[in-house]
Amino acid sequence: MSEPTARRRLSPKDRRSELLALGAEVFGQRPYDEVRIDEIAERAGVSRALMYHYFPDKRAFFAAVVRAESERLFEATNTPAAEGQTLFDRLRSGVLAYMRYDEEHPHGAWAAYIGMGRTDPVLRGIDDVDNERQMQRIMAAVTDVVSGDLGSKVERDLQVIVYGWLAFTFELCRQRILDPSVDANWLADSCAHALLDAVARVPGIPAALAQAVRT
């Protein structure tokens, strides 16, 4: 086990961030049931009482770790459109940013991927918020090429497709964490094509969108 960190004077915000970063590292290395709050406190160089001041129990601590990682990932995958980019290019850039984040934060990404399982209502709530935000971001990119209203049915069907694609992409990126030899560019191409192919099959999409997904 790593040596405990000498306690430093930090603001409450910085101390909490430090604990969450350490939690991401530890939860990313070992199963949830094997991690003890006392261990986190010892490694951070803080008292058990202070640990519980920030987080009432291990479940709340883990949920906070996952939420913090989700926020970081959401920011990392914010890839605004560059001039001349096609819809395919934008989607591909977003998937590559996702995989780049996984590479740069392997423990945090893995903690967010596995956790206690997605049956936990707190974690499911975090997932729901993340999926909603990502869906809205992708819908904005998809409909950016359309002038006027999509119509409620088409918009609903597109949202269903995007939600399904997010789950598909999530799993492919998880597989790449398991096997980093999987080529990132190939995977990003596959993910972008998969969404555009699915969008093209939504009945009633505007002609401009149909043209964009074929470009």
From TrEMBL:
- Locate the DNA-binding region by residue range: 36-55
HTH tetR-type domain boundaries: 13-73
Query: What PANTHER family does this protein map onto?
Result: HTH-TYPE TRANSCRIPTIONAL REGULATOR RUTR (PTHR30055), TRANSCRIPTIONAL REGULATORY PROTEIN (PROBABLY TETR-FAMILY)-RELATED (PTHR30055:SF174)
Q: Which SUPFAM superfamilies match?
A: Homeodomain-like
What is this protein's name? TetR/AcrR family transcriptional regulator
Q: What is the lineage of its organism?
A: Bacteria, Bacillati, Actinomycetota, Actinomycetes, Mycobacteriales
Q: Which Gene3D superfamilies match?
A: Tetracycline Repressor, domain 2
Q: What's the source species for this entry? A: Candidatus Mycolicibacterium alkanivorans
Q: Which UniProt keywords apply?
A: DNA-binding
